[in-house]
Amino acid sequence: MKKCLAILTVLLMVLGVTVIAGCGGGTQQGQEAQDVIKIGVILPLTGTEAMFGTMEKNSMEMAYEELKAAGKTTINGKEIKLIFEDDQSRQDAAKAAAEKLINQDKVVMLSGGYSSANTNVIAGTAQSKGIPFLIVTGSADKITKQGWQWVFRGAAAPSSKYTSALWDLFDKQIKPRNVAIIYENTDFGTSSAEAFRNDCKARGIKIVFDQSYEKGAIDFKPMLANMKKANPDVVFAVSYVMDASLIVKQMRELDFNPRLFVGGAAGYTMPEFLENAGSAAEYIASTTLWVPSVTWKGASDYFNKYKEKYGKEPDYHGAQAYATMYIIADALARAKDFTPAGIQKALKETDMMTIMGPIKFEDWEGYTNQDRPTTYVVQWQKGKLEVVWPEEAASGKLVFPVPKWNER
Amino acid sequence: MSLFLQTIICGILLGAMYALIAIGMTLIMGVMKIINLAHGALVMVGMYITYFCFKEWGIDPYLGMFISMPALFLIGCLIQKYLINRLVEVDSILPENQVLLTVGIMLVLTETMRLIFKSDYRSVVTSYSTKTFFLGDISISIPMTFGFLIAMILTWLLHLFLTRTDLGRSIRATAQDRDAAIYMGVNASRITVITFGIGSALAAAGGSLLLPLFYLWPDIGHLFTAKAFIITILGGMGSTMGAILGGLTLGIAESLGATYISMGYKDVVGLIIFLLVLLFLPGGFRSFTRR
């Protein structure tokens, strides 16, 4: 009897909640539909990637406030409204969030996407539903290589292009004889490593060690000891932030001295990397898409403002989100009507400057709606990130070969 | 050869840390007969307490252990007394809803920490964090060795406690047969409260030992829950010795897998062993001693 009562109560409660929620949702939608333009933004706000998602959400909101102050968030009497959804750093949740935004909230455009795997899921949903999707970070090559007309990648580069500046540096200055590649076994890691491998083959550079790892490991020493035995000239590593710091720390513990260690963006440029790796971060180089000292207008302003507002230094991920918000506002201002098709057309015609550089959605080398990225090589020197390549943007000189651990 | 030795040593050092976390879980599982899915979250809370002590008052993580352990003991006792024991008493819709409750506790703990500390990665950098010594050309991390020793000492103390004291014997009695223990005058619900407290304190100890070499964010708990669960099954429920063997086995297997197969398949190696044990040795390593 007790059981029946309990079940009944639970059922009643569930029913009650849905009824109330249903009513609320109904009236809200009815009123708002006329005077707002709804944009859905899917970012990881909980789970393993929450730190990045939070930084990107903060950056987007900051850009939104700036645009609002300039009166650019209301277009023809309609206000842009951002609806943030959490993908919990999981693909199934990303899919659910995308469906919810499209079907329930009736957004006219999607943005966000941090990890490549989740971005790909959202892109697939957006493509099949015919909703424009502007990617913030997700960068596996395949996402914009599927001919998907509704998917746009502006502030983010395809992962194989992160290394453009690095290869320029390799060809002109370093000329490595052999390299080792380590990468996390995610979409981003695999895609970056694949491209790097092909670039090596094209130049006849020998790959002496090539291995993936599961992110979130405590002990990388078995892999690093193995790599030390292969004795590579240059190490190329694709890792998220804390894996990155553990890897360089444990490299020092093993007294493993490659002539240069280059990270493939992601983890190796973050403030947390320096904090956790400490002095082991010194002379670690990395490719990156953005540094606060780039010459694009507004870049250093963004950096300072973010630091002041949130008490933390942003890195290129935040800049991507900030630029994305500006791209959205720009496209909406030019859109003839606020239907998905109208916004898609406006996005396609984008030609603007952001803190990530010029943004244009073009079709090239098999990519669709992909901006041509500018990349940099940076190196940690005395606890600061210095741009070392390309030469015209350089703020410091590359230290190469780096001193051995016991000679520092 | 040196590569092999390096691998084995890394595995043993790491395995001992895993074991310490798993002992807490196995103890709770033995007495309560439930899987505590909040165990990893308890490790995480312990790590945050140690981290906070380090950041605010500059207390070394190894000393911070003496704050995080009592704190977690208290939290564990409260959870058991006011949440889990209440569910044991009532007639429930699902027989396994204590397990569901631990999932709820895990979520609450994780999100509370996110509220306080945000999702940022935190780490503690001490002067000895990356110190090593060399035996021949094998590098051995000093904080790892320290962690190993402390883990072993704590396990030994726990063993003494369980075998030599009245309270310890009551815990073992409750684990073996709850009803019989009650007939013998053991206050079983008090025993479960204490056991959960001890289990949580050991989880905190494991967290504090890992903090100087690892890092911290609110969702880190899943990693530990998964490892502790595998080890508990490997070692057999409720067995301290089994948990140590299980921890070392998992550590060494992961290291060997990482060196000789690929680090990308590190977890696969652990899980294959897990499956094999379930298939051919359902009682865990403990079944060897029982024969």
Walk me through what this model shows:
The complex is a heterodimer of chains A (408) and B (291). By secondary structure, chain A is an alpha/beta fold. Chain A folds into two domains: 34-157 and 296-370, Response regulator (Rossmann fold, 3-Layer(aba) Sandwich), CATH 3.40.50; 161-288 and 375-407, Response regulator (Rossmann fold, 3-Layer(aba) Sandwich). In chain A, 43% of the residues lie in helices and 21% in strands. Chain A contains twelve helices and 17 strands. In chain A, the strands form four sheets. Chain A has a seven-stranded mixed β-sheet, sandwiched between helices. In chain A, helix 2 (50-69) packs across helix 11. The relative contact order of chain A is 0.12. Residues 1-32 of chain A have low confidence and may be disordered. With 291 residues, chain B is an all-alpha fold. Chain B has one domain (2-290): Orthogonal Bundle (ABC transporter involved in vitamin B12 uptake, BtuC). Helix content of chain B is 75%, strand content 3%. Chain B has a two-stranded antiparallel ribbon. Chain B is globular, with a radius of gyration of 19 Å. The relative contact order of chain B is 0.21. The mean pLDDT of chain B is 88. The A-B interface holds A 2-3, 6-7, 45-48, 50-51, 53-54, 89, 185, 211-214, 216-223, 225-226, 229, 241-242, 245-246, 249-250, 252-255, 272, 275-276, 278, 280, 312 and B 3, 6-7, 10, 14, 17, 91, 93, 111, 114, 118-121, 123, 125, 129-130, 132, 134, 139, 141, 210, 213-215, 217-219, 223, 254-256, 258-259, 262-267.
Q: Per DSSP, what share of the residues of chain B sits in E-state strands of 2 or more residues?
A: under 5%
At the first level of CATH, the class of chain B is Mainly Alpha
**Strand segment count of chain A:** 17
How many structural units, i.e. domains of chain B?
1
Number of domain modules of chain A: 2
CA(first)-CA(last) distance of chain B: 36 Å
Helix content of chain B: over 70%
CATH topology of the largest domain in chain A: Rossmann fold
Mean pLDDT of chain B: 88
Helix content of chain A: 40-55%
Unreliable segments of chain A (pLDDT under 50, ≥5 consecutive)?
Answer: 1-32
CATH topology of chain B: ABC transporter involved in vitamin B12 uptake, BtuC
Spatial sequence of strands, sheet with the most strands of chain A = 8-7-9-10-11-16-17
Shape of chain B: globular
Shape of chain A: globular
State the CATH superfamily name of the largest domain in chain A: Response regulator
